[in-house]
Amino acid sequence: xxxxxxxxxxxxxxxxxxxxxxxxxxxxxxxxxxxxxxxxxxxxxxxxxxxxxxxxxxxxxxxxxxxxxxxxxxxxxxxxxxxxxxxxxxxxxxxxxxxxxxxxxxxxxxxxxxxxxxxxxxxxxxxxxxxxxxxxxxxxxxxxxxxxxxxxxxxxxxxxxxxxxxxxxxxxxxxxx
Length: 177
What we know:
This protein is α+β, with helices and mostly antiparallel strands. It has 6 helices and 4 strands.
């Protein structure tokens, strides 16, 4: 009992202990009522079974005719930053800026407050067209390779009966020939 955090806080500072207990009680009461009141007690993210996707996106990056193996030789953060701009770019090409769509959905009728700043906050179609050049410069900095040609293919893969990856479709995302 003497090793418990709350017991140590109680011995050290009774008002601080009272604050922790009240905070915990309010958080539990709000969560039981169905309100998510704090960023670290979000129970809704565990409320339903995750569904397997129909396909998995695989980005095939080719620089100067050579395939970039970003699965080895890069830190996990580097791998993330090589792939995440591509998935964001794909979403923007298909539906426009996903942040704008998210805010429209979340804000509902109060979205009109964002309208005056829309052009400076969200990516326009002109910005989307500039992405391949930006990504080329970004890859040059990340990989240290002077890029003459850049091609990015989006491969859609799935698992077959033998649990091996099978490519079911391929699209050109960036064609820099």
